[in-house]
Every structure is written in C-alpha cells, then in structure tokens.
Amino acid sequence: MTTTGAHRDSADDTSPRSLLWWGRRRSAVLDVGLGLVSAAECALEGVRFSETAALPVPVGVVFGLLAGSVLVLRRRWPVAVVLVSIAITPAEMGFLMGIVGLYTLAASEAPRRVIAALAGMSLLGTLIVTFVRTRQDVATADFDPGLWYVPLVSTVMSMGLTAPPLLLGLYVGARRRLMESLRERAVSLEQELSLLADRAEQQAQWARTEERTRIAREMHDVVAHRVSLMVVHAAALQAVALKDPQKAVRNAALVGDMGRQALTELREMLGVLRSGEEVVARAAVEPVPLAAVGAAAAAAAEAAEAEVAGEGPSLADLGSLVEQSRLAGMVVEFSVQGESRPYRPEVEQTAFRVVQEALTNVHKHAAGARAWVRVAHRDAEIAMQVENGPSERGAADAGLPSGGNGLVGMRERVSALGGVFVSGPTDGGGFRVSAVLPMGSPAESPAV
C-alpha cells in the first residue's frame, strides 16, 4: 500500500462527519449491528412483557426496540447503557445489552468505584429477577428440588451473566492502556533518537568546521612563511644576479632549501590528513552505535592533532627560524630570558608558529624594518614578543598577497591553549605581537 493509499484509507475510517464519536468505520458497523440485534431481542421479549403486564403488544414491542437500540451508544455513554440494562432487568429484557454494556464499561476509562457500583447493581438486579423466575418455575413443577435449588441456580446464573463480561472488560481495558503506554513510549524514544541524531549531526558539522579551520591555519603557517622568504630571496636574487653572481648562487640555494622544507612540512601534514581519511572511511563502512559517534570523532581529531603536534616544530627551532629571516636581509635581534625547559608539544608548536607568523608579517608589510624577537621562560608560563620598527621604504611592502588571517590564526591558537594574545601598532610606527602561554608539563593531555 502506498503512502497516499494509506492516508486515503485512514481518512475514510476516521471521518468525523460520517462516524460521529467512532474512531473507525468497523467500530461503527459493529455497534450498529449490536444495537440492531439488541433491539430485535428486546422487541421479542417485549411481546412476553406486554402479556405479563397486560399491555398492548405494540407498546411492548416499541418499548423493546427503543430500549435495545440504546446499545449503539455503548462507546460514548457506557454508564447510560448499563443503567438502562439494569432498569429493564425486572422486565426480563436486554440480556445482550447488559452483557455488552458491562463489558464496555469495565474496559472504559470510567473510575473503578463507578464500575464496581454499577456491576454490583447489575448483579443484584439479575440475582433478584433470576431468583423470582426460578422460584416461579419450581412452584409449577411436579417435583420438589429442595430449598437449596433456587438460591444456587439464581446465584450461578447471575454470576454467569455478570462476572465474565466484567472480568473480560477489565482485562481488555488494562491491555489497551498498556499498549497505549508502550506506543507513547515508542514515540518518545523515536523522538529522543531523532534529537540525538540531530545533535550528532550538529556535532559532526561542528567538528568538520573546526577541522577545516585547523587545517587552514596549519596550511597558512606552513606555506606563508616559507613562500614569503622564497619570494624575498627571489627578489634579492633578481637584483644581484648580474652584479654579484656568488651571492646570487647563495640566494638560489636558500630558495631551494626553503622550498624543500616547505614540501617536507606539507608532506607530513598530508600524511596526517590521509590517516584521518582512513579513519573516516572505516567509520562510514562499519556501523557504530549512535552514542559512540561523538567520542570516536573526538578521539580521531585528538589523535590527528597529537600527531601533528608531535612532528611539528618546537622552541629549539626558533634559532633556525630567525637565521632564515637574517639570510633574507632582515636585521633581527633574538633574545631568550630564563631557563629553557620542556613544554607540551602543542605549547612549543604554538609558540613557534606565533614567532613565525609575526616574522612573516614583517617580511610582507615592513620590508627592510628592524625586528626584535624576545622569548621569556617564566615559572608557570612562556611569553614571546615580536616587534618591528618602521619600514625603511615607508608604506611600501614586499608586494606579497595577504588573506588577513595571520593575526586571527595566532589568536585562535593561543586562546585554544588558555593563553593571552595582544597585537597592535607601536608608538614608533612599528608593530608588536605578544603572546603568553601557560607552561603545562609534557605529561599533561592536550587541552580540549
């Protein structure tokens, strides 16, 4: 059955205009059928009742038809149906209506005290009528069954007409409530699963965004500095190629070394990305529990970050970094205060990247300016500062492209480790970049 067909059938079965209070078409058909059978039964019993009460037969038949047809209302007003059945019990009418009405009342959401009261009234009325009728039959019989016969027969018959529908109705009502409770619970669990899936998708999207940002930051740090120095050396090579061939050869060698270093760092980074892709591919093929998605993504990201941090640069490489800038023609003063000690890999890598990006900005935007690089090892933190004076060429720079993400990337790196980052122009016309990172021991886990 298609969705459209199911919807059409559902609409036909539950149309409020044609079915009144019934929820389904077959429920209406069942109740109408029971009402017709009950009306026919009461009409036949009305003939005997009219003879006993000395009434015209049509009156008894009409009375039976009206009383029996009340069974149609059993789903809407079960209490009224049971009361009508109790009221016509003395006339020995409505046995079907009494049984079905009592069953419907017991299976409904009516209060238990109401069900008990009406069931007791029905039992008592049936007991009295059965007792009187049995006693009359025994009085006209040719034998004497004894004093115990009438009470026993009347009790058994009244219990047989009252107890089975009452117990069956209670069972069906309890089962219906249980099924509704289970259905509501299933709907609630489905909603919770949907919310968890949406939350997992949001976390995955957030993780992808963070990973793209981190990769962009790493690529910027790795490529920008090396390529900037290569451009500076290429410009120097072009300027001295004819005047000083030996210096041109040295500059060409430096350009080659820097290119090889850039390729090495890019190759290491791409290797980490490939390992991350393998993890993602396995996760896409192998089914995993929904609750483990976030943990697996976090573990993969942490492992990738740890691998990058373990293979990345450190504070020991600052001397080589400063020397490369000096070879490019920049006058750089490098000073270290305090005793050097081992830090967490991500702390050393962030400190190196801050100095590297700051020197790259000097090459880009303050060509020929003097620079100062200061590193201070303190008790619980490490501080670094890169400052440059005004450019000797005024407002002109090296003509290198800039995406404007260098300072943003440095700030993000430092803030991720709980540090402080400050940057801005100096009074002397230069620019200063300062960062302070918490020390952290090598054994500590990376900050999340």
SSE blueprint and pairings:
Layout: H1 3-13, H2 16-19, H3 25-52, H4 57-68, H5 78-87, H6 95-107, H7 112-139, H8 149-240, H9 245-285, H10 291-311, H11 318-327, E1 332-337, H12 345-365, E2 371-377, E3 381-388, H13 406-416, E4 420-425, E5 431-438
Parallel strand pairs: 1-2
Antiparallel strand pairs: 2-3, 3-5, 4-5
Helix pairs in contact: 3-4, 5-6, 5-7, 6-7, 6-8, 7-8, 8-9, 8-10, 8-12, 9-10, 11-12, 12-13
Characterize the structure shown.
Helix content is 67%, strand content 8%. It is of the alpha+beta class and 448 residues long. The chain is built from 13 helices and 5 strands. The chain has a 5-stranded mixed beta sheet with strand order 1-2-3-5-4, covered by helices on one side. The longest helix is centred in the middle third of the chain and has 92 residues, at 149-240. Among the domains are: 19-145, no CATH class; 314-448, Heat Shock Protein 90, CATH 3.30.565. Strand 1 (332-337), helix 12 and strand 2 (371-377) form a beta-alpha-beta unit.
Q: How can the largest sheet be summarized?
A: 5 strands, mixed
Question: For the largest beta sheet, what order do the strands appear in spatially?
Answer: 1-2-3-5-4
Q: What portion of residues belong to β-strands?
A: 5-15%
Shape: rod-shaped
CATH architecture title of one domain:
2-Layer Sandwich
Average pLDDT across residues?
A: 76
What is the rounded Rg? 46 Å
* CATH structural class of one domain: Alpha Beta
Uncertain segments are 1-16, 279-304, 443-448
The total of helices stands at: 13
N-C termini distance? 51 Å
Helix/strand class: alpha+beta
Helix content: 55-70%
Give the CATH topology of one domain.
Answer: Heat Shock Protein 90
GO cellular component, one term: membrane
InterPro entries: HATPase_C_sf (IPR036890), Sensor_HK_TwoCompSys (IPR050482), Sig_transdc_His_kin_sub3_dim/P (IPR011712)
Organism: Streptomyces wuyuanensis
Catalytic activity: ATP + protein L-histidine = ADP + protein N-phospho-L-histidine
